[in-house]
Specification:
The chain is α/β, with parallel strands linked by helices. The protein is 42% helix and 20% strand.
Amino acid sequence: MKLFKKNILFLFFFGCFAFTAIAQQKQNINWISFEQLDDSLAVKPKKVFISFYTNWCAYCKKMNKVAFKNPEVIALLNSEYYAVKMDAESKKNITFERAEYINEEVGKNRQPIHQIPLLLASRKNKTFSLPATVILNKTFKITKRHFEYLSTKKMLKFLKN
């Protein structure tokens, strides 16, 4: 019986230690702001991944919990892209490439959209919708845009192709 208790105790402590080690190895996406992006692109040109979201967007939240937690997505974004996440309803003035961008819709609309997502993620003859995901090449030209929930599988395809 004593041996059984010792084995159980050993397994419990070993399990706790292993869980802690795995949790510490878990990586996150290195999200940066547009201001940080400006500096980063000046130092080292790289593709840019932009995720526009709002606090009320259910699919944006789902992407945060699913696709953006996937180790392969995280590794790909961190190695090949500058990853930017922006609240599309931000009221903050943002300076990028010596220009200032604002949210002109504040006080005019119930869900005011900032100039940056309107510039990068608008579609002709369609209202702005979320989630909106944009990829820019090294020279900051739009190469891809997506306007719906991306599962992990679709996110990987979007990032690789």
